[in-house]
Design brief:
The complex is a heterotrimer of chains A (310), B (328) and C (329).
Chain A (H helix, E strand, L loop, with lengths): L24 H10 L2 H23 L32 H37 L1 H16 L2 H12 L3 H10 L3 H15 L2 H8 L4 H37 L11 H9 L12 H29 L8
Helix pairs in contact in A: 1-11, 2-3, 2-11, 3-4, 3-6, 3-7, 3-9, 3-11, 4-7, 5-6, 7-9, 8-9, 9-10, 9-11, 10-11
Chain B lengths: L1 H27 L5 H8 L8 H10 L6 H13 L13 H36 L4 H15 L2 H15 L16 H39 L2 H8 L4 H23 L1 H15 L4 H10 L3 H29 L1 H4 L6
Helix pairs in contact in B: 1-13, 5-6, 5-8, 5-11, 5-13, 6-8, 7-8, 7-11, 8-10, 8-11, 9-10, 10-13, 11-12, 12-13
Chain C lengths: L2 E14 L2 E14 L3 E5 L6 H8 L7 E3 L4 E4 L2 E2 L5 H7 L4 E4 L3 H4 L6 H12 L4 H14 L5 H4 L9 H13 L5 E5 L7 H18 L2 E6 L2 H7 L2 E6 L2 E7 H6 L4 H8 L51 E2 L5 E2 L8 E2 L2
Parallel strand pairs in C: 3-9, 3-10, 7-8, 8-9
Antiparallel strand pairs in C: 1-2, 1-4, 1-5, 5-6, 10-11, 11-13, 12-13, 12-14
The chains are: A mainly alpha (310), B mainly alpha (328), C alpha/beta (329).
Amino acid sequence: MPKLFYRKKLEELEDKARPLHINSYWQLVWLKFKSHKLAMIGAVILLAIVAFSVFGPLFVKVGYDDMDFSSLFSPPLTRGHPLGTDELGHDVLVRIMYGGRISLFVGFASSIITTLIGTLIGLLSGFYGGIVDRFLMRFVDVMLSIPMFPILLTLTLVFGSGIMNIILVLTVFGWMGVARLVRGLVLSIRETEYVMSARAMGVRSVRIILRHVLPNVIPIVIVSATLNMSYAILAESSLSYLGLGIQPPMPSWGNMLQRAMNYVLGTATGVSPWWLTFFPGFFIFLTVLNVNFLGDGLRDALDPKFVSES
Amino acid sequence: MKTYFLKRFLELIPIFFAISIIIFVIMNSMPGDPLLQMRMQNPRAMANDPQRMKELREYYRLDDPLPVKYFTWLKSIMTGDLGYSSMYKMPVIDLITSRLPNTLILTITAWLIGLVFALPIGILSAVKKYSVFDYSTTVFAFIGISLPSFWFALIAIIIFSVNLKWLPVSGMATYGVVGTWNIFVDRLRYLVLPAFVLGLVQVASWVRYIRTSLLEVLDQDYVRTAYAKGVPDRKVIIKHALKNAMIPIITIIALDIPYFFGGALIIETVFSWPGMGRLMYQAVISSDYNLAISCLMFLAIITLISNLVADFLYVLVDPRIRMGRKGT
Amino acid sequence: MEKILKVENLKISFKTQLGRITPVDGISFELSEGETLGIVGESGCGKTITAFSIIKLLPKNAFLGENTRITFRGRDLAMIDKEDLQRIRGKSISMVFQEPMTSLNPLYTIGWQISEVYKLHEGLDESQAMQKSIEMLGLVGIPEPAKRVKEYPHQLSGGMRQRVMIAMALACSPMLLIADEPTTALDVTIQAQVLELMNDLKSKFNTATMIITHDLGVIAEMCDRVLVMYAGQIVESSDVFRLFDNPLHPYTRGLIHSIPRIEVKKLDQKKLNVIEGFVPHPSKFPEGCRFRPRCSFAMEKCVERPPVYLTETGHTVSCWRFEGSELYE
């Protein structure tokens, strides 16, 4: 940013001097996170969506499979159907709740597993170096050169659909980014003086990894996990949309859109049920958006060098 | 410099083979017996005759061990024989060559749209850091990377094609249009929506990246030196800072090319755009083995090529790479 | 001799997420034509920020105090507008920075980077500027300047790069040169060469120079007068000989005594002299005399900030031990 300031004097600056009672790293992290408005909003909305999906169904009397033949293709705000119904009378709101459970679960689970695997590989690669490192990184390069989405498609056919299989598919091809990041970080930590002196003193490698390397790697891992989650949710919904992910009758936000696609141009009666297209996708969007906000806030908060100028 | 490219090219060859192995293994793990499929598609020609089945199996070498199958396959694709599509009943290579231009039109247009929007916006938001413009750009960028592309496409169709009726819903061309200019306009009308949907999502991720890269450069000592010399702001940003930021920016823009093809898969499906993406999707769904595996390999090659393209662009920008890092 | 720079009550504050911090807290000094002023202090005392503030090379969240005035040849740099500032930078006031490795743009030839100054401030065209750049390179002691002018920074060694920086800075014969730790990042032998070069050029161009450093050796080599800074304030100032002969402020004494010496009579000394403690962070400056926590002469009175005294020996010093001397205005 241009390092110039013209005609500014202290009068323009309110005295916001606060004594710095920062006693620990995590206190500083929390302070920085709190000041990131988008991240705070993101966290709140995300929590709301999770609560909505997990606990919502407990409060409704209808199931996602129940058909209300008296109101097919009802628009939102019809009695009993706040978000409308689809072509078989399923209530959209309820389906979104259940769909949320699935999409959130898949996203969360696959990002956790992916991050764990990636971190492990990155740690091993970075710390032990040598042939192990070269082999693993070559492997990562190869995997990254394979077109991601088409392969995901293919893998769903190999493994089949269903929640666990989708998680498996997303995991097989999701760990590379984390692995690379972690490896890079480990490499630089390994060359720091405190690690070198620990090794010189004969501390066992595992202990070094656990006590010195891991704590420094955790911030980047947390951020990676959140970003991974946003990708996982998008990928799962894309696959479901294409008919390959979660199969009906189990609702997922993605496969709800697939059904909706048939009616984009309008139903037999000429009505264009926009709510069938809008709501499921909107929830995907909202969730991913807030996960991204959260991830961004976490990244800023956890970065030790980052103290922003307001 | 030539040695640099040669070296990079040689490095890519083992990667190519490794990719081919992985793709081959995955494709061969797909459930379904090809012979059964053939029979389903052509029941009369393939009567339920076990002897004939056995002969066919031997002819097609279906029971060879995997490595043998791999090398057979490798040999044939190296000679340009990509096999026969079971779904379209055409040689795969003809299918690909006929669809490829369509995908190229779509992806290149989307790529250009991405650049045209992302570069100036990214640069401006870095220069005006923390301004209203910057914050709104950041919010739009977040929105962009969070949008499911197919949903965005569907909403766009609903708004622009169904409700406003400005643009067509799907396909690539209207039948029966004559006259070069009319044809051009017609094609453009079909191209607009898919290209923008594909491109705008990229703008979102590029804008943030460009902003970050430029900010990082603006923090460097040599930028401070430029200011200290009395160089005016605009010149500092364009001549001193931007050129240095181009290195990471080129990386992301060139290496994102494969993602355009992947994203095209979804967009082409939504818009029924007759391109390679849609072809690949249909191939995988219908277990059209030859077509699917050829499309996958093709994409892999595009990825490797875009790596080389990125390298080429680096060399243009950074003299240190040009000179092979002589000196400290 | 004309006074070309007069800094009055320089106060620099930064607005950060954690509140406001003021690393430079009301310092004043002057510089005459052709004079070399040294500003010395440990890392974190605010000397580099002081140097940068003269030509306003500070980040956007930095602010100057209300009463700050930076008068350069009659103009107040604190209130100047952008175009005028850009005209002064590189032409009337130049800077040389600490890290020659990173202070040159890696993507342009050194010839281009020096020529830029000529094209900008003297309106020369490409070939004229290049010609003068070659001359300048020769002047700073780079062999075969016509050949090297087409090279890139990464092809030069650290010492050469610093010479290029000096060439760039002196290209338009500025009245004032500000050098921030110019030799700190260089090998010791190269340091000596570069200092010699600077001394040479200084007298040739009659440039007033401000040298920021933590190295007392550099001060001794180069400076006419010295300011000693601690925690954002000037604790002592004097001409260079008197400073080394008779340091008054406890901090200055500490600095000078902590220079390791090889003299025989000190052989019975077991440990190196150090000043106990650390330089305080700008957000945690002590009340009153800021050096008090580390001062072996601290008295009760030191909880109040001492005024600046002017002693008969010509030093200014900010310490209660000199109460009774004339006050310095």
